[in-house]
Amino acid sequence: MRTPVSIGLIGTTDASIVAALAPRIERLGFHALWLNDVPGGDSLAGLRVAAAETSTLRLATGVIPLDRRPVESLDLAAAPAKRLSVGIGSGRARRSLALVGDGITALRAATEAEVIVGALGPRMRRLAAERADGALFNWLTPEAAASAVHELRDVAGDRPVRGILYVRTIVETAARPALEHEAARYDAVPAYAANFARLGTRAIDATVSSADELAAYDGAVDEIVLRAITPDGSLAELERFVDDTAGWLGRSA
What percent of the chain has pLDDT over 90? Predict the structure, then answer.
């Protein structure tokens, strides 16, 4: 794989699991650990745990909804700025572009960490291209991902900006029901449903369950985040996930 590959976990992952898993992710040569930010799960708190157990692994939030957690409420000292990527999004805000634009400004003043914008629609992608360090995409096939990154760079011009993609991934058949449930949930979200209709795809078409399916994304984006889907989210299952995906990349556990 030419494209850096990272691991993504749900933000409610127990701190003890993050502490046990982060060194394994670092040792196996993954680019970063991403924690999404959901109610009941503080991504930055989880990254603080991971930072204490690692030394070179990049640490990222994907993404913090600013309607629920404004920049001034964030503990940006959770991880060293040189290793941190702060992903932000609008959540369910009505004035989404203004909220995220102000968030970028506030983050630039508060930290030297990389600023990533969760970007579903074209206007948010343009904002990311013009003012952020990267855009985080979601639920895209390899072809759609390559097109999104091309558009991002076209708008950015000479500005360096990264296109990063979250890809829901399983390594065992027992996780297939959880993956299908997750895909169906996003198929039912109006904004995503409209995007799938434009692309002529379904959520399940943008998932990975084998090395060959992962290889199809190589070169399409600047970073691939394998969002781990396992039957129960246990430490043993997540260790297996990390080991197996490392094997897809030719790395030994």
Answer: 94
